[in-house]
Amino acid sequence: MSLLGLDIGTTGCKAVLFDESGALLSAASREYGVLTPQPGWAEQDARAVWRLAWDALCQAVAACPHDPPAALALSCQGEAIMPVDGDGVPLRPAILGMDTRTTAQNAWLAEHVGAHWLYERTGMPLHTINTLPKLLWLRGHEPDVYRRAARFCLYEDYLLQCLTGEPVVSQCLASRTQMMALDGSGWDVEILARCGLDAVRLSPVAPADLRPIGQLSSKLSRELGLRRPLWVAAGGHDQACAALGSGTIAPGAAMVSTGSAEVVELALAGPAVSTDLAAGGISVYRHVVPGRYLAMTLNQAGGMVLRWFRDVCGPGLLAEARQAGLNAYDLILRDAPAMPTRLLMLPHLSGSGTPLLDTASRGALVGLSFATTRAEIAKAILEGLTFELRTNIELLRNGGMPLERLHAVGGGARSHLWLQLKANICGLPLNVPDVTEAAALGAALLAGVTAGVYADLPAAVAATVRTAHTVEPQADMQARYGERYALYSELYPRLAELLHRL
After folding, report:
1. Which CATH superfamily is domain 302-400+473-501 in?
2. Which of 78, 276, 301, 446 is most exposed by smallest CB count within 10 Å?
3. Structure pTM?
């Protein structure tokens, strides 16, 4: 019996079919863009995302005709918001999590609602990533669209309506919005009342017991050629699904996920919202595993910085890579120096994530000379991103959450160079699982519990998640990168004022 995980990321989607042991049977992916109509804005055509996701899903299922899926669940990017009409059709492009237009709305929330009060109730610090200030922005800046909207959707409930006709959002993803109580009791009516919002215009929150939310519509089932019902589960936030798919479920276990964004997820037994975590902008929200929580650091640029470099500074690279039978990123980094680069890259192309939370910061590349090569710049990007990762790991450690190792997942886990940089710069071993597409696997495991394939999620993890190999720190490179990290730590403080003036 196969299980289908549909992963909806910020810049692309993947449909992956797994068997009961976690072996990958087939997969298909599509890329899509991010619209930037104004500086700091990040929007997306949700209808195009749905069409591309359905194309990928159809391709993955068609590639495995002997074992059609029994159940499907979604892994979705968080915090994006879109107003939809009564038929579930978006009235404007989705405003993405990485969008930074809501500084004024966060100032209003701090003054009229209270940053500490919101953090204690929801686990979400004030930040432009959150759904709540985006909803306030829509109300203030596009009142006609706001008035006409029958409902305000995240990607999960929008796509579930496309698939089943039922717009339902998981407790996990709802708890990323800053509008749901951490205890899982549903939309927080007191927060909504203080903000003048109505829960009726938000999608119903799914129960925590992993029951199916419905079946794939008969029309779509016919398109897939299915002869039996396809159960659909709610799923959850993509990073929480990746935590599940990497085996990060026991309290104290930690994962680094490198995709469009780069995050660390630390599993918690309960909703630990401390002053230290709040000061560092660490969000705490509900895991897809019932009764568990996650503390999350965030670098919202992540792998998007390398993709930007590929597309803007390497025209023709994709075609060249296809001709050579290589991945474009492997081609870029093929001649990268073995030693630390002579460059420092501040990877704040969409502002900084935790712990700085400076939406006005921007990227900077320092140390260029006529001897600088394309490969050296590409490696400097990886170094800068990994220095940011180390800063966040130190933040968690200083907050009383020791990390002894990381499970590495996402597209970045397929690069040995990047994995070794993480081990050397952060001084931690990294376990790399057999399946690095952990978000899709996590969604498939949720589908499997829904369909009765596994008794519960711990049993699902035990049956499917295996470590392929471990990357250990190299003592000599760890020392060299310790010196580079000391220099990197000076970069933002020295540039911040100039970047703000720019």
Report:
1. ATPase, nucleotide binding domain (3.30.420.40)
2. 276
3. 0.89
